[in-house]
Specification:
This protein is mainly alpha-helical. Helix content is 73%, strand content 0%.
């Protein structure tokens, strides 16, 4: 029982800290537009193609691929793909 209390004393603040850190990151993403996220993330590794270079279906596929490759969140990917599809 004493070990359980010790674990809870250390685990609870850690869990709260991780939750708060995650919410801060999502708030930063929520304030950014798809165009801004596209410019910040895609140009890190390669020249960004024109939004007209691909159709809506292609952008969805590319978004899924780049979410994994660029370690993007679901929200970042959604915003970037929506921007690219709207500019197409």
């Amino acid at each position: 029982m004493k070990n359980l209390k010790t674990i809870l004393v250390f685990a609870l603040p850690l869990a709260v800290g991780l939750f708060l850190a995650a919410s801060c990151v999502s708030t930063k993403v929520a304030m950014k537009s798809g165009a801004q996220l596209w410019g910040e993330n895609c140009v890190r590794c390669h020249n960004t193609p024109s939004p007209a270079a691909y159709n809506d279906t292609d952008w969805e596929t590319i978004g899924l691929h780049m979410r994994i490759r660029a370690n993007l969140t679901a929200e970042e990917t959604r915003k970037i793909v929506e921007f690219l599809q709207s500019a197409n």
